[in-house]
Amino acid sequence: MGKRKRAADVPNGAAAPKSTSTKKARASEEPRNNERIAPSVVTVQIVTGSYDRILHGITATLSLPSGSRRDGSGTNGKVEFADTFLFNAHTSAIRCLALSPPSAPEPGRAQKVMLASGSNDERINVYNISAHPPKRQQPQQEDDDGEPEGEGEGDQGKQGRNKNKKEKSGNSGSSMNELLSTIAPRRILEDPRNRELGTLLHHSASVTRLAFPTRAKLLSASEDATVGVTRTRDWSLLSAIKAPAPAAALQGRPSGDTAALGAAPRGVVDFAVHPSMKLMLTVGRGERCMRLWNLMTARKAGVLNFGREALSQVGEGRHHGALLGGEGRRVVWGAGEGEGDGEDEFCVAFDRDLLVYGMDSTPKCRVMPDHRTKIHEVCYVVTDAETDAALLAVSTEDGRILFFSTRSEDLTTPAPTSKPGSSSTSMPSSSSPPLPVAKLVAQLGGKEAGVTGRIKDFSVLRAGGEEQEQLIIPTGSSDGKVRIFTLATDELNEARKSKGGEAATAATTKQVGRLLGTYETSNRITCLEAFVMIPRPEGAEDSEDEDAGEYADEGEFEGLSGDEDEDDDEDDDDDSE
């Protein structure tokens, strides 16, 4: 006879809850005596793309000090890395990644996240990624009873036996992972739920940007000057928004351009969808402008040209030669003022500076205090949940993430006699007054943290409670290293209130955050995405087929349909110059 369960030997279950409640009470008293809160454990799924065509999935299990002191003297967090998947995804370098929101929670069913990767090979690969942390190896237990199968057993017994078989198969898979971890340089926690769904082939050039505004739609930009809108329910192309080709005679050719002989650089580089899901901004190659699109009709809504004076102040033209300058590299919506009215501004990133525009489409300020380093990625980070106030985070060539405040009270106007970013170039006589400069609040990384290589991409995740909210910032560098930083929002709020401004430099800027750990991928990272994994609910099982309800449209992009014809003639008159 096999061993019986321990719960069966207890005649009355009242003693067990009593003992556990005592332990919980003791655990809750310890933080009061030590003036700290016990660290919380968070699992983060990180996905990196590289020049080596490798799609690498990593899980980082973090022990966050939820009650660390503001001066950095609190408990130090820990991080444990593990490999979850490694796909040879494309035949060329991977340029962009996108993660969808998780599927809707359902009783007894695991949640999933869709992953899309774009490359220079014109393909978009789509994967299903588990939203729950991978299971670790559990010690195998003996059967409850030694009775043969079928004797005194009903339907519930059969279901329980089938469930045990599934658990044993899962344990065998985890045993294989443990065996591989003993011979591999890193821990392996392979998840069989991470699998490829298929490939999209509706672009004819390199894919430059991907985004899931909702779980029901995938937007993709390409160098073929189109933005594709794909429905994830059946992966059909609903619409292809076509941007007009720039005139080569007017724009010129930059040095190092790879366009074909006799052709001009073209293509949509980046796009940003407004949270209302009705508007979209795009920037492209060979254009000194950005375009506004109506997503309800998939048609052009307007063109905003970058002024010569504004481009001169952000350093465009000096670093690209006399032929071309002023191409937007990134565009993002944000709420800089934090008035509670949603996104009230948008930011356009150039090679070495950024321009922030208000909703009236006039330049509000520029961002970088100088033009000594290149810009790679930019996003808004909300620091106040009540007012939705946000700071602008910018990753640079010298291994830093800079945080800027674009609030009106934090802007400073430089002297009109000095040229921003360069003292050797004089201002044109017909130029407008110099643009205000955003306040440099703090910096993360850099030489002070031992980071010297460029930060190609980063992601900002949230963890912890409302009183002490922690930001988890995974970064990917060209040297193949993934670094995990933690940062409290209180640090950013205090740094914004301190004195500072345009004259702030790397030596005088406040250093915030702390480095928890570094992971070596051995690949040159080009892009990175991450999300906080959801704890697995009890009794959740993975399904092979997806429900149509998971991809049901929520009313967004109602005007888009596969039968719409695009009017390219209307866009021909909207050249940037």
TrEMBL record:
A Pfam family matched in the record: WD40
Regions of compositional bias (Acidic residues) in chain numbering: 141-154, 540-577
Composition bias, Low complexity: 412-430
InterPro entries associated with the record: PAK1-Kinase_Regulator, WD40/YVTN_repeat-like_dom_sf, WD40_repeat_dom_sf, WD40_rpt
Region annotation (Disordered) ranges: 1-36, 130-177, 410-436, 536-577
Start-end of Basic and acidic residues biased regions: 26-35
Top-rank taxon: Eukaryota
Entries under PANTHER family matching the protein: P21-ACTIVATED PROTEIN KINASE-INTERACTING PROTEIN 1, PAK1 INTERACTING PROTEIN 1
Protein name: Protein mak11
Organism in which the protein naturally occurs: Diatrype stigma
Gene field: MAK11
